[in-house]
Write a structure and sequence with these properties.
There is one protein chain. This protein is 42% helix and 21% strand. The chain is α/β, with parallel strands linked by helices. The strands form 3 sheets. The protein has a 5-stranded parallel sheet with strand order 6-5-7-4-8, with helices on both faces. Strands 9-10-13-11-12 form a 5-stranded mixed sheet. It has a 3-stranded mixed sheet with strand order 1-3-2. It has helices at residues 36-47, 72-80, 89-98, 113-125, 146-154, 167-175, 192-203, 218-229, 253-262, 286-298, 303-314, 318-340; strands spanning 2-7, 15-22, 27-34, 56-60, 83-86, 104-107, 129-133, 159-162, 182-186, 208-213, 234-239, 247-252, 269-273.
């Protein structure tokens, strides 16, 4: 009989087992819903069969809201780490306590990462296992960790990613917008000029644009984006992803401005805006091509250079432009060449 243990925070009893007939195994298997501590103990027993982890910096993805959104591998790494670097030790302490992880916890955030880096590098060079976690999601993605990973790569210290929950991917997958191509912008720059430049670039991209927006600045963000994206562009405001009050609001930017002017949202926000619609350029008329060629040739360009320039400007096939150039200006060029001789 096979046994599978799964965590279940909503069940008060220490464990609950269900019997079922497995069509794959052709035998009876047991699923046990157990407490988080029992679950971690079962993971630990399995870990002993895998052997020790190699030294290095482990970038561990953690839940973005729901504590159950963590991988078995992440738990194993956190339990095995000599030290866990955490953006907020009080916040991360709740996660570690939930899974009965008792490794040393050390604060590591944007205000002290420069001071911590050398000490952390020393520990890594001594062969320790260092795990880095952020408050939610993946370290280094709009969170501390990028500089440390760069330094480790430069020093030939292993940097090992441990994938986990991701607000960007979760929001995009459920948004209903195009997922083939997208641009993750994250938080907009604080400087107004740089913000404007970023919005201009994003508004002209055909890919879905994804932003992180503080809840108290949502109305300001929508006001800022309107001049560049317009009011009719569709957007999705994903709030409190994986949490109890998860919400996906969908509509135009104009509608969003009205909606969130009268209500103040709470919680983390991932905001997605559809890409700019591709407009197929119409081919210029023969007379327009003739005018462009005439202007270039009058300016002293050779026939071949004029043809190449016009073809690049209009996305027309070079062969077609050359054929027209010979028909319209071939005799003129020939006369000029004979006169030069």
């Amino acid at each position: 009989m096979a046994r599978l243990c799964l965590p279940c925070s909503s069940i008060r009893a220490s464990s609950l087992s269900l019997l079922f007939r497995s069509p794959i195994l052709s035998r009876t298997a047991t699923i046990s819903f157990c407490s988080s501590s029992d679950f971690v103990d079962s993971v630990a027993k399995d870990d002993s069969k895998r052997g020790p982890l190699k030294p290095g910096l482990y970038l561990v993805g953690t839940p973005i809201g729901n504590l159950e959104d963590i991988t078995l591998r992440a738990i194993r790494v956190l339990r095995s780490a000599d030290v866990i670097l955490s953006e907020d030790t009080r916040h991360s302490g709740k996660l570690l306590q939930y899974y009965n992880i008792k490794a040393q916890l050390l604060s590591y955030h944007k205000f002290n990462e420069a001071q911590r880096e050398q000490a952390v590098l020393t520990r890594l060079k001594q062969g320790e296992i260092v795990a880095l976690i952020s408050d939610a999601g993946t370290p280094g993605i709009s969170d501390p960790g990028t500089q440390l990973a760069k330094m480790c790569a430069k020093e030939n210290i292993d940097v090992i990613p441990i994938p986990g929950a991701c607000a960007v991917v979760a929001a995009l997958s459920a948004s209903g917008l195009d997922t083939d191509e997208f641009t993750f912008v994250g938080f907009l720059p604080k400087h107004s000029g740089t913000r404007k430049e970023r919005l201009i670039v994003s508004s002209n991209e055909t890919r879905t644009q994804i932003f992180y927006v503080p809840p108290h600045k949502l109305s300001q963000f929508l006001e800022e984006t309107t001049p560049y994206f317009g009011e009719s562009r569709q957007c999705v405001i994903a709030r409190e992803i994986t949490k109890l009050h998860e919400e996906f609001w969908r509509g135009s930017i104009g509608e969003a401005k009205e909606e969130f002017l009268i209500r103040q949202p709470k919680g983390e926000i991932t905001l997605l805006i559809e890409g700019k619609e591709e407009t197929k350029a119409e081919n210029p008329t023969e007379s327009q091509l003739e005018e462009e060629l005439k202007g270039l040739i009058s300016d002293g360009h050779s026939l071949s250079t004029a043809v190449k320039t016009v073809a690049e400007r209009t996305s027309m096939r070079k062969k077609e432009v050359y054929s027209l150039a010979l028909k319209k200006f071939g005799k003129q060029i020939q006369v000029e060449d004979e006169a030069d001789e």
